[in-house]
Task: inverse folding
């Protein structure tokens, strides 16, 4: 996985937007709520996690058992994980995790906001 591929997968979700926050993090949102984030500048932030995303309860428990996957700083209580390196999960696993995170966040939006986002694939 690369940052460019991660960005493409996030922005492929219906209604997804991207903005830079907290210095150099690309934050991906749906309906104004964050569903994924990735560091864009490792020269300035060499210790930063590669990316973060939300999991369901079972997914969170399974993910944090994996080498290179840790509870996300500040967001672990909301079942977010972070990757220490891009190869901590396969590209397919990261793509599935992005889709799951998006679905979880989207499901928490009001029905009115959800209706404006388009069809979920």
Result:
């Amino acid at each position: 996985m690369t940052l460019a591929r991660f960005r493409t997968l996030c922005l492929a979700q219906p209604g997804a937007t991207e903005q830079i926050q907290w210095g150099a993090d690309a934050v991906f949102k749906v309906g104004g709520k964050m569903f994924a984030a990735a560091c864009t500048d490792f020269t300035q932030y060499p210790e930063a996690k590669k990316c973060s995303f939300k999991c369901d309860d079972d997914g969170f428990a399974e993910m944090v058992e994996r080498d290179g996957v840790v509870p996300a700083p500040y967001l672990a209580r909301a079942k977010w994980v972070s990757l220490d390196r891009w190869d901590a999960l396969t590209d397919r696993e990261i793509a599935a995790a992005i889709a799951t995170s998006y679905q979880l966040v989207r499901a928490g939006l009001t029905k009115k906001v959800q209706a404006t986002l388009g069809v979920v694939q």
Remarks:
- The CA atoms of residues 21 and 27 lie 7 Å apart.
- The helical segments are 3-11, 57-63, 91-107, 111-115.
- The chain has a mean pLDDT of 93.
- The chain has one domain: 3-114.
